[in-house]
Amino acid sequence: MNPRLSALHPYPFEKLRRLLAQADTPPANLTPINLSIGEPKHATPPLIVQAMQSAMGGLSVYPPTKGDVGLRTAIADWIARRYDINRPDPDTQVLPALGSREALFAFAQTIVDPDAGALVICPNPFYQIYEGAALLAGAQPYYINAQASLNFGYDWSSVPADVWRKTQLVFVCSPGNPAGNVMSLDEWKTLFSLSDEYGFVIAADECYSEIYFDEDNKPLGSMQAACLLARHDYRNLVCFSSLSKRSNVPGLRSGFVAGDAQLISQFLLYRTYHGSAISPVVSQASIAAWNDEAHVVENRRLYREKFEAVLPILGSVLQTDWPDAAFYLWAVTPYADTDFVRDLYGATGVTALPGSYLAREAHGTNPGTGRIRLALVAPIQQCTEAAERIADFVRGNS
User: Which helix or strand (DSSP H or E) is residue 238 part of?
Assistant: First the structure.
């Protein structure tokens, strides 16, 4: 067996199941409401379903690892429209992927040289795939803690020079999970400068980029930031995106990798052996999704309505506010986050995720401690009902 498997941590939801097993049985008259998992629940747009149904003939052929040229073109066109930049080259700077999760994991296996004592910098809290990808590639994670005083961003100057010298890959997530923070142009400028100095690669996870609340204030993207800073070759930068959240198709497993052509070329070489090619059926459905914005605008409207309904209820009892983007609330708990989640479930049937389960103890603290993540993915009636139950629970325990 691969000895690196023993370094992997339990996934947050495995820990959550064990925690809830210790809770009291929720009242029988309360329907359970799960706000712990960031799985989109809005209906899949009919145009995507129809495109997939019309493409079933594609099941008779093997898909190319590089992806359908029509899909690569649709992605490149979308990137140009979305970020108001020159279209990346569909042939050399764009690669379809089986969702962002698969690509993020595989990319680390491409980049990391384990014989060089590699470090991979992970945001903390973080999406656990970053950590697992680093460990299985033979690197050690180095955690940089999110700071509430920096809008849950990072003090890159706190990373010692000897850590930077060993760093081969930096994962960032913007909009962030769990806080929904968006990296500013100044933050990107700092990170790009460090990449130039130390030579590490940046993997920018942007799977929440299309869940925001002001149609006139779209989250800044990594490729957009690079272009604004005259880095038109996207050197040492690759971004990852997905249709899962944007188009409510998590089961489609369709996303993309885009950026530095040299890195894309090496990633394609890896994937030739990895066997992660997108079916022509999924390609046609994905083309339809990337070419349509109306359903995405409607998707954002539904999320905005939920935040407008929930925040006045929860804001009266918990410290929480609108995120910059994404569909999470990152709320402060009145006592230990794990105890709060256990007690909340037993008293109300509402499931939240302890913030400490999304982070690691690093530099003397776990930056998720004392918070919960609430995913507002359920229908608005359920989200509102859950918020009212949480508010009543907090008041009853104050």
Answer: strand 237-242
pTM for this prediction: 0.96
**Which CATH number goes with the domain that contains 203?**
3.40.640.10
Torsion (CA) 330, 195, 171, 215 in degrees, nearest 10:
50
Tell whether 288 and 301 lie within a shared domain. no
Measure the CA–CA gap between 348 and 386, rounded to whole angstroms.
8
Provide the domain limits for residue 334: 3-43+295-396
pLDDT above 80: residue 137: yes
- Tell me the average pLDDT of the chain: 96
To which residue do tokens 């990391």 refer?
112
- Note whether 247 and 45 are within 8 A (CB): yes
For residue 350, the domain's CATH number is 3.90.1150.10
- Do 212 and 285 lie in one domain? The reply is yes
233-275 tens-digit pLDDT: 999 999 999 999 999 999 999 999 999 999 999 999 999 998 8
The Cα 257–Cα 237 span in angstroms is 10
Q: How deeply is 381 buried, as exposed, middle or buried, from its count of CB atoms within 10 A (0-12, 13-18, 19+)?
A: exposed
Sheet holding 237-242, edge to edge: 94-97, 255-259, 237-242, 201-205, 167-173, 119-124, 140-145
Summarize pLDDT for 272-303 with one digit per residue, the tens. Answer: 998 889 999 999 999 999 999 999 999 999 99
Give the C-alpha distances (Å, rounded to integers) separating 131 from 243, 250, 317. Answer: 23, 22, 34
Q: How many domains does the chain have?
A: 2
Burial class (CB in 10 A: 0-12, 13-18, 19+), 346: middle
Cis peptide bond prior to 125, omega within 30° of 0: yes
CA pseudo-torsion sign 151, 152, 158, 160: negative
Report how far apart, in Å, the C-alpha atoms of 360 and of each of 94, 299, 356, 364 are. 33, 33, 7, 10
Q: Are 140 and 164 in contact (CB under 8 A)?
A: no
